[in-house]
Amino acid sequence: MCLVFVAAEFTGSGFEFLPLQCYRLIVFRFGRHIMPRIGYIAYIDEAGDDGIKKIRTETEKGASEWFVVSAVVIHAENGPRVLPWLKDIIAQTKSCQIKHLHFYKLEHAARVAACRSLVEKEVYLFSAISYKQTMEGHENLAAEKVNINKTARFYAWMSRLLLEQVTNFIGQKTFIDYNQTTKVRVEFSDRGGLDIRQFRNYFDYLRDQSATGSLYLDKYDLDWSVVDTKEMHSFANKERAGLQLADTVASAFYSGLEKTSEATPNAEYAKLLERRMARDDSRRILDCGVKIMPKWIPNRIIGPAAELVTYYTKR
Hints:
By secondary structure, the chain is an alpha/beta fold. 31% of the residues lie in helices and 18% in strands. The protein is built from 8 helices and 11 strands.
């Protein structure tokens, strides 16, 4: 006989029943309990655009200089708490009329309030940052092999970098938290060019390369023990409270890097997130919670973006 609890999240359009394995549910069977296969959920969103054919300069139009992909990682049993967290963050911004949090639409004071509220939640934060001037014309051969849409190939590359951070962090924590290896459920924000089936194929391809020692770039790798590509999904941002939290992280970092016609970079928002940025065993954030690519670029960045880059290279 088996007793199972069902979890649901209200998304704004009704209650959404979530996979049972997403939470640390205890399933009783003949007096024994089975811990879940899914121990963590990673919500992933991006800021900036991922175009690399032509990067804009001060005198020429083009794609953004910076691209940021960020993750908010939670323990799976905290899944039902994410929507209340989002509601609390919105309340702290004094923007109570909005139901869908878009960081870039907030005024300065509301952005500060959102970041301060987010770090009060039980989350681990990650950001992978690319200075795209060095990536102009880059080709992702692995993504090309599995026929990922051309418009999503650089995003696939950046998602790989981010998930290297996330999975290695979880790989270190899972035995501490669960006394066993558990998997991470990954939820991407739906975007133009993203076909989640192609993304699953992409990460399956990388896993096969890893197993045979044939990764094109083999200095870094995912911790595949916590990865199940069938647990990779995509959702519209407005449908998932967790994705709106990830948008806050990505946009906070992007706002500290990209100079636009409307604003100069402001590092304050991303600095406010330091408390919850993931750290390695040495308590370092760099290359764990924050990865800046290429690795040699931080010392060469000048101008307003240098403040944020320098801040996190020292942490």
